[in-house]
Amino acid sequence: MPVDKIDKLQTKARLSRQEVLEMCTRAGEGRVASAFSCTEILVALFQGGILRFDTKNLQWEGRDRFIMSKSPGAVGLYPILCDLGFFSSTELDKYCQSGGILGPYGDNIPGVEAVWGSLGHGLGVGAGLALAAKMDKKKYMTVVMLGDGECYEGSIWEAAMFAGHHQLDNLVGIVDRNGICTIDFTENCLRLEPLESKWRDFGWEVVTIDGHSFEEIFAAFKNFRTRKSKKPLMIIANTVKGKGISLLENNPMGHILIPSGEQLAKAREELRQ
User: Fold this and answer.
1) pTM listed for this prediction
2) Which of 7, 216, 228, 247 has a CA positioned 20 to 30 A from the CA of residue 97?
3) Domain boundary assignment for the chain
4) pLDDT digits (tens, 9 = 90+) for 216-265
5) Would you say domain 3-272 falls under CATH 3.10.310.40?
């Protein structure tokens, strides 16, 4: 990948994190750390050209379907979608306010098929969309962003079994493997490892990457529309929860924290670097 493209995407990621912090600070609401762990992935998907969409025709039948099943990270989508022209920048100022369209989990957000509040449902919907595409002979891809703590949900594994059985090679899942769920490390709450083999046992092709490396993200999606495998693809993205802000990074309690006072000033300075 050209160095200049990576540099531009890294700048996009930095600006997105800065905007998310300001939105959550103004509103006093939002999961900053959850959004920051998947920032590079969302930037690559939407601003890096992986997904197909048309900001002028939101119902274009050929658009790829993206589902944000990892709902606490939904706020991380909003600056990216705004930058692409899906809605006005004034909506970012109205985040979690009366009259705005952007909430903590999102409902009817332009550019996204669905953002769930209750965890565990997005992969099932994605599998349904992927099966419908096959039945209707449509070429669009369905991509579902999952949290690793979300993989505790039984409905995730029902959908995994369904997708593997139906050989939904037009379905891609991404697990944001930041290692932290609501208030503790995932392996302390309920052990997920070996996560790769679990997905393989359910009939998925599995790739593990550094979720903050644009090179590895794009490599994982290379030829994802024309893979020879008939299996759905699961990308396990190793990430850092709260990436970019030392107060939040790898901090189990960072899930619910929004920096304030001196901590906010330090966070802003860290995100400028």
Assistant:
1) 0.96
2) 247
3) 3-272
4) 999 999 999 999 999 999 999 999 999 999 999 999 988 889 999 999 99
5) no
